[in-house]
């Protein structure tokens, strides 16, 4: 019997795979998805301003009611759209822009980045940015991937598409199956702080809570002295640097829950 030195081939292969997985998912998860390094997620804390953002639309069953509530309150918001929905409902896409809201990219395919083939995760922001530009005549500036989930391929695709990742600091949990419109209202009011970026949904499961909650929530936020902005106009919004990412208060839950 011949004795071999060094680790067994299976152990070497396992170690290599773990290192590759760590580089592809682990590092982007810890630094970007969880700590939000390089992403915009919060404006200036010294101003009583907020940014409302909506994901997953447009949907003719729910987006018009969201737009109506925003118009009645006299505020503007940012919509992160799915490009197939934007192309399927060009009238709603046009209305979002015509009423002064900001239109940005959510995704072409609404799937968690960890479950996608690397080249598909890489190409999604590139294709999405091109599709939105073809539809609206304007390239998006920001990209919020589904579930706020990142891999190395997602990051490379964002950079290639010249998009800035956009996260949030307050999550409405409107998608949660046990939540009611009142729960959404109370959660956002309790967690809103100056400069916050709030994520809600104008389509999908979250819309069943957001649509009825929104008029009262907007009134309550305004009564609390908040001015509501788009991301483009939110004072002090800038990418989070390494020091800020490592020292900011850690989120109470990882941003992988729900159907964002």
From TrEMBL:
Keywords on record: Membrane, Transmembrane, Transmembrane helix
Signal peptide feature range: none
GO terms, molecular function: hydrolase activity, acting on carbon-nitrogen (but not peptide) bonds
Pfam families noted in UniProt: Polysacc_deac_1
Superkingdom of source: Bacteria
GO biological process, alphabetically ordered: carbohydrate metabolic process
SUPFAM superfamilies, per the entry: Glycoside hydrolase/deacetylase
Transmembrane segments: 12-32
Keyword Membrane carried by entry: yes
Domain NodB homology intervals: 48-229
Keyword Transport carried by entry: no
Protein name per UniProt: NodB homology domain-containing protein
Biological source species: Deinococcus aquiradiocola
């Amino acid at each position: 019997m011949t004795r071999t030195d060094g680790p067994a081939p299976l152990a070497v292969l396992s170690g290599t795979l773990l290192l590759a997985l760590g580089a592809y998912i682990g590092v982007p998860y810890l630094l970007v998805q969880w700590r939000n390094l390089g992403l915009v997620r919060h404006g200036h804390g010294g101003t009583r301003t907020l940014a409302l953002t909506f994901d997953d639309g447009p949907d003719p069953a729910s987006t018009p009611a969201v737009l109506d509530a925003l118009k009645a309150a006299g505020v503007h918001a940012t919509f992160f759209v799915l490009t197939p929905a934007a192309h399927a409902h060009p009238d709603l896409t046009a209305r979002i822009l015509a009423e002064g809201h900001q239109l940005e990219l959510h995704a072409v395919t609404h799937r968690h980045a960890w479950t996608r083939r690397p080249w598909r995760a890489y190409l999604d922001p590139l294709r999405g940015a091109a599709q939105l530009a073809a539809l609206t005549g304007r390239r998006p500036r920001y990209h919020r991937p589904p579930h706020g989930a990142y891999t190395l391929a997602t990051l490379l695709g964002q950079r290639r598409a010249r998009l800035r990742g956009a996260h949030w600091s307050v999550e409405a949990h409107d998608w949660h199956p046990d939540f009611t419109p009142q729960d959404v209202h109370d959660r956002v009011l309790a967690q809103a702080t100056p400069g916050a970026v709030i994520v809600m949904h104008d389509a999908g499961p979250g819309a069943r809570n957001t649509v009825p909650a929104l008029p009262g929530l907007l009134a309550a936020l305004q009564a609390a002295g908040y001015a509501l902005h788009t991301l483009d106009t939110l004072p002090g919004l800038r990418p989070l640097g390494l020091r800020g990412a490592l020292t900011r208060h850690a989120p109470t839950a990882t941003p992988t829950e729900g159907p964002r």
